[in-house]
Design goal:
Structural class: mainly beta
Oligomer: single chain
Order of helices and strands: EE
Strand order of the largest sheet: 1-2
Shape: rod-shaped
Number of strands: 2
Largest sheet: 2 strands, antiparallel
Helix content: under 10%
Number of helices: 0
Amino acid sequence: MPKFEIGVPVPTTDAKVEVEVDANDPLRPGRYIFELQVVDDDGNVSAPAQAVVTITDPGPTAVIEAPSEVPFGESFALSGEGSFDVAGGTIREYVWTLVNVER
């Protein structure tokens, strides 16, 4: 399986290549431009064709921790410390909202 590096051609006799992504080091979000040229048995080289593959940013995941019960009149804490961004971004803001009260 070829390892792609910017500007380094990867010659192969296969018409299809797999772009393997390491789960521990995934491709960062962005536009990846791949180019293909083909060479026939006479050594003639085609004009390049390009494909643009966009790796999307899935956005952060909010994780909320809260006690399931609190005695009447007592304060309690909500925590978003377990929230994360799988694309490696930094959580810069936590937006808290009381959505409803059921009695």
